Q: What sequence folds into this?
């Protein structure tokens, strides 16, 4: 399967656009994280796929290939053909890239990271997407605004039907389906040029790329195969850095998550840990000094090494221990935030309170026995409980540093 990534440099010139839906530096809070994201995404894809191709323009090739030296198997500058006078519609670069494919492909966003190849059901499906978005609120509000103000509204646009796909990954074996998609979207843009020139709602891109693609598919009786069968509206199902690589092989730092400092630092730490040469190159490109090991997130390199060296089947037999400086009282946890260095109080949810058991070294298996007692749970219920506990414990290890490996 051919993997495609696309980078259109025009959105980077929209420096004054403060709209949350805009993408002046990929939506990241600083240029460094944009580069780190692209590097980690490409390098992880190349671990599992021989053909990882980049569709970009001249400026994009200079940045990602000439300067950052990302190892794409092929590079085209076809996005030079994308003559639109504004980078506000950042989705146009992706949509154009879909439309020029002449064979089966999977397009992967530059903020998606994988730790395994895609499942066969994804690689063999006619059409694929990251997940389906059912009645997400953002679509209804943006659609309502667009429909009420636009000069031209396609027939398939309806505020009564806001189901969509997420295009973190999109593509499939039915590559012909995408052939005319760009021209269809281009018609919307051209017929609304006056309106869109002053339109500040960056999330219109979600409508043009994700919502419209899904609606066209539905109108033609097409079925999408999804990487994630379900996704909560806060997208928490694809943001669990703490579960990589044993329990999650796919991360998409989506939209609002890019503004989360901890998510940025987790991504930065992973690039430094897995691909130190490219991390150093980014620091040199930006004229920044390499932070000493352990200074990005204290103890994170040590934690990553320990976590990666544990065989997945042994995770549930590994001993964990509450950090000595942590205080627990009436469902609250008081600890020193590893990023800010400030004392922080966190309200623990009901299951999370089990970390109080870790005043002495315990394994997941031991915690489960203490919780369940004589209660009879099915095998499936026990497995679900174990995985919920490992999610809690690993998040406290990597995000809060309130639990350590014993």
A:
């Amino acid at each position: 399967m051919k993997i495609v990534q696309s980078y259109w440099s025009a959105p980077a010139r929209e420096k004054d656009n403060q709209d949350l839906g805009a993408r002046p530096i990929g939506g990241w809070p600083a240029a460094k994280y944009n580069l780190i994201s692209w590097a980690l995404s490409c390098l992880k894809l190349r671990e599992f796929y021989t053909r990882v191709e980049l569709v970009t323009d001249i400026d994009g090739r200079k940045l990602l290939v000439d300067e950052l030296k990302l190892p794409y198997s092929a590079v085209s500058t076809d996005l030079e053909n994308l003559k639109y006078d504004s980078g506000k519609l950042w989705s146009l670069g992706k949509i154009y890239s879909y439309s020029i494919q002449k064979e089966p492909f999977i397009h992967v966003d530059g903020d998606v990271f994988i730790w395994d190849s895609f499942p066969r059901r994804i690689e063999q499906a006619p059409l694929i997407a990251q997940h389906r978005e059912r009645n997400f609120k953002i679509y209804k509000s943006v659609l309502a605004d667009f429909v009420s103000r636009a000069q031209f509204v396609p027939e398939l646009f309806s505020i009564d039907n806001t189901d969509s796909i997420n295009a973190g990954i999109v593509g499939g074996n039915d590559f012909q389906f995408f052939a005319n998609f760009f021209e269809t979207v281009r018609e919307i843009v051209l017929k609304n040029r006056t309106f869109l020139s002053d339109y500040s709602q960056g999330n219109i891109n979600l409508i043009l790329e994700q919502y419209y693609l899904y609606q066209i598919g539905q109108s033609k009786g097409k079925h999408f195969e999804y990487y994630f069968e379900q996704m909560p509206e806060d997208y928490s199902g694809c943001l669990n850095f703490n579960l990589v690589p044993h329990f999650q092989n796919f991360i998409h730092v989506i939209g609002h998550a890019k503004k989360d400092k901890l998510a940025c630092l987790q991504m930065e730490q992973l690039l430094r840990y897995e691909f130190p040469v490219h991390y150093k190159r980014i620091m040199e490109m930006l004229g920044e000094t390499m932070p000493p090991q352990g200074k990005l997130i204290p103890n994170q390199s040590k934690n990553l090494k320990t976590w990666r060296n544990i065989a997945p089947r042994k995770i549930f037999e590994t001993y964990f221990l509450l950090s000595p400086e942590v205080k627990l009282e009436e469902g609250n946890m008081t600890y020193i935030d590893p990023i800010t260095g400030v004392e922080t109080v966190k309200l623990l949810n009901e299951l999370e309170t089990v970390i109080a058991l870790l005043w002495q070294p315990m394994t997941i298996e031991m915690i489960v026995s203490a919780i369940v007692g004589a209660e009879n749970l099915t095998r499936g219920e026990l497995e679900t409980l174990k995985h919920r506990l490992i999610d809690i414990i690993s998040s406290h290890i990597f995000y809060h540093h309130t639990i350590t490996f014993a």
Observations:
- The radius of gyration is 23 Å.
- The domain at 2-226 is CATH 3.90.550 (Spore Coat Polysaccharide Biosynthesis Protein SpsA; Chain A).
